[in-house]
Amino acid sequence: MKTPTTSPSLRRKLWIGAISLLVLAGFFVLKTSPFLPERNISLFNYLSAHSVQSLTLQTDIQAIYEKDSIDLPATLHWVEASGKEINLPVEISIRGNNRRELCSFPPLKLKTIPNKALATKSAGFKLVTHCVEGTGESLLLREYLAYQLYAGLTDASFKTHLVRITYTDGSGKNSPVESWAFLLEPKEELIERLSAEELDEAGPIQTISAVDYNRFAVFQFMIGNTDWNLDKEHNVKMLVPKDGGLPFPVPYDFDRSGLVNAPYAIPHSMLPINTVKDRFFQWRGKDRTQLEPVLEDFRRQKEELIGLCRDFDLLPAQDRQDVIEYLEEFFQKMQVLLGDGRQMAHTKPIRQGGLS
Predict the structure, then answer these.
(1) DSSP string spanning 320-355?
(2) Alpha-carbon distance 166 to 58, whole Å?
């Protein structure tokens, strides 16, 4: 790869100068677009609803590799089922904390540029990328599968849309990069879909819906994920129903789970486990008999969950087998959660409601 000699600041000026041209081009492309009547939906929902499975994203690829913390103009291209080609001006930015440092190709955030000619409303959404060349695609598909598993258990989950994406360099100085990626439902649309709002409460979570919390905690145990924290809302959104119900959690970011088993994933130093594939139950309830209904739900849906993994043929056969064996181990040992096994010792019990 040839590295450009231009500085990030100069490159930014050159690309910003192109934004007006991109927007103008987007106006003429989109003015007659067949999806103009659907202007009130987000780009995420449009791509999902229309089963767009292949995208091209043209931007400053070198800035992505250098992880410049600036908004980059870009063009998103796809072909409609009718054969109509769409070129949509967007802005992208580098996101993520840990992955930004760990990944050679970091995760991105896409947002449409405000323009009355755009057929979809202005909204940003996360693009989960392959992180590293080679094994990165399998790891990404395993994380995508984790989202699918949770969505199979509850609607209180982020929707995802898997795409084959080609990243092309507007300057022509870097070769195209093609990989799997998936789009994550915008937080605002998750909230609207669930008729909820963000929990406006700082500090430790005091009360939570028992049904949702127990399902959430058991799921995290099932996939071997300890990289979350309710009080700090680390890798979890805390929402509350608009009708006045109890708060409930919606998890995201599963790349450090045992199910994914990324080479960079290690347990937190305070946890008594050696690898992320070692399961540890982070649960703050008082009476473990409360877990019996949710464990029965998991047991009842076992074949569907395993079937999701077995039928996901985009994932290499060896990876699928590894995932299935990991889940089978959970189902064989899930009753241990009803005993006095290890749990987080530094947190106070959380009140759970809504048991009915």
Answers:
(1) HHHHHHHHHHHHHHGGGGGTT----SSS---EEE--
(2) 8
The rounded distance, in Å, linking the Cα atoms of 139 and 89 is 29
Nearest to 315 by CA among 132, 187, 146: 146
Q: If DSSP codes are grouped into helix, strand and coil, which group holds residue 212?
A: helix
Burial label for 186, CB within 10 Å (0-12, 13-18, 19+), is buried
* Domain locations along the chain: 8-189, 195-353
pLDDT tens, residue by residue, 201-243: 767 888 999 999 999 999 999 999 999 999 999 999 999 999 9
DSSP-based three-state secondary structure for 131? strand
Structure token pair of residue 66:
């250098």
CA–CA separation, 74 vs 89, rounded Å?
Answer: 6
> CA dihedral in degrees (207, 209, 213, 214; nearest 10)?
120
Count of helix runs (H) and strand runs (E) in the chain: 10, 12
Confidence of residue 33 (pLDDT cuts 50, 70, 90): very low
Phi, psi (degrees; rounded to nearest 5) at 290: -60, -20
Alpha helices in 55-135 (DSSP H): 61-66, 98-102
Could you confirm whether domain 195-353 is CATH 1.10.1070? yes
List the structure tokens of 307: 């079937």
pTM given for the model: 0.85
